[in-house]
Amino acid sequence: MKNTDADQDSTNVGIGERLRAERQRLGYVQADFGAAVGVSKTTQFNYEAGDRTPDARYLRKAAALGMDLLHVVTGSRDDSSADRPVRIPALEAQGRDGTAPLKEDGAPYEATGLCFSQDWLEARHLSAPQLSVVTVRGSSMESVLFDGDLVLVDQQDRRPRSGFVYVLRQGQELLVKYCQMLPAGILRVTSANPSFAAYDVDLARTPELEVIGRVVASLHEW
Description:
about 220 residues; two-stranded antiparallel ribbon; 2 domains; 434 Repressor (Amino-terminal Domain)
């Protein structure tokens, strides 16, 4: 018996839903994943909505990024792939014009991200879509974190608490600092390096400073 159009539509919807779930598991937004596999955001949206069927070229590139194609196409999983790596994207500060900051030699910083074990993330109750990798810049956190260290940031946790390290976006910089919320919306920012003085910021009057999220792990732990 030939498949009807309704059968094909139902199949595409199922593939699209699983494709969306796998893309989210890998830590990508639609536009970034589409760019990584060579399609537009609109095409990626249509695949996930079940309006179009992904072709072989697309699926091959998706598999290279860690997508479980067996699950996407059939709904089944291979037990050997239960702990497939999850890609966590890197985060770089952007200027007001939307461009990334440049290195001293004028070249842009690369933001490629890192892959983590799904089991490792789940054991720490971390959700991949809310995570980013940030590179520590400078010496303000020396003794705890050093220039070039990588940290994993939970962007759901933006309410600073004493004793934790947070990432702040300030202009074209991402700052890694100890932070503490004081009464009246005042943020106290402290460094591990005593050469850097602590300072207070009124967040309501300082829109150019934003709390990005809490540092939940560093390369010293993974």
